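Handout, page 2. Input:
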Amino acid sequence: MEKILTACQLSTDDYNLLWLPEGEKLAWHTIKEAWKVRTVILFGIEPSAMGIQAQFMPHQTSRFSDCNWLYTATVRYIMEHPEIKAHLWNYGLKPVFIDKIYP
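Output:
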């Protein structure tokens, strides 16, 4: 995970990490209000675990609730599948964090 965040040119002051145990749920609106979230990356977490009833294209940026959403597989799975890793970088992480296409 650290390598991914470093590649995105993010420092520890730029993000918050939440570990959501399997089966746990979290209210998206609470997080959004508390932290003024602009981008959410879900590594192996279904959007429904955050009370989101929307479908996102996997491994690329989607816009929802005035935020960038990147819904993808677990970090371990991504590292084992270079085609997914490349897709996530080219159509998800790079446009958001490097090219800054999305606000």
